[in-house]
Amino acid sequence: MLNSNILIVDDDREILNSIEIFLSNEGFNIFKAANGEEALGVLKSEDIHLILMDIMMPKMDGVQATLVIRKEKDIPIIMLTAKSEDSDIILGLNIGADDYITKPFNYLELVARVKSNLRRYIKYENFKKPGNDEINIRGLYLNKKTKEVYVNEYLVRLTPIEFKILQLLMENKNRIFSIKEIYETVWGEDFMNSENTVSVHIRRIREKIEVNPKEPIYLKVVWGVGYKIEK
Known about the structure:
The protein has helices at 13-25, 36-45, 62-69, 86-94, 107-127, 160-171, 179-186, 195-209, and strands at 5-9, 29-33, 50-54, 77-81, 99-102, 134-137, 140-143, 148-151, 154-156, 219-222, 226-229. By secondary structure, it is an alpha/beta fold.
């Protein structure tokens, strides 16, 4: 986390310099921009790990800049706002911000927020680069060695059978497995009227890994055929 590159975007030079002092003292490398246009220019030339983004700025405000950045990058963005209304907070989070802090802010709190978001980002980036014992499909992460499953950065608790089913499907993404194939592979027994057993386990897995189990983005059913993890 030390030596991470932080981009501060604010049209108030005094705030820029103050934040720079506090974060530099923590070992971060600081880049500065006075508006959204300048921020986009910095992002083209520098490897930035986190952005502190003011909302109200000339030329291009923080909302517009965040919308552009989110088309290409998933680095943490903490919104800086001079207002405390819920609408500003909700707007920032809806357009892709990870966190927010309201001016005037406590600089120790700001430093803590920066470190917290960087920790989550670094952990997430590690998930995106799986090793031989790891499988990652769009944020659904499975570690065969530690028997851990995460959805993005959140740990999911699976039973041993649920883990085996998910591992089977993730190791063969896009391949459709029939209920018979799943049962005989995972349970290691001949399939005999075990359709309901598999279906119950599939439902439980969905409830744990899907935001909306009724509209799954990972574990899909192919009616009349079986199940698959969609790539």
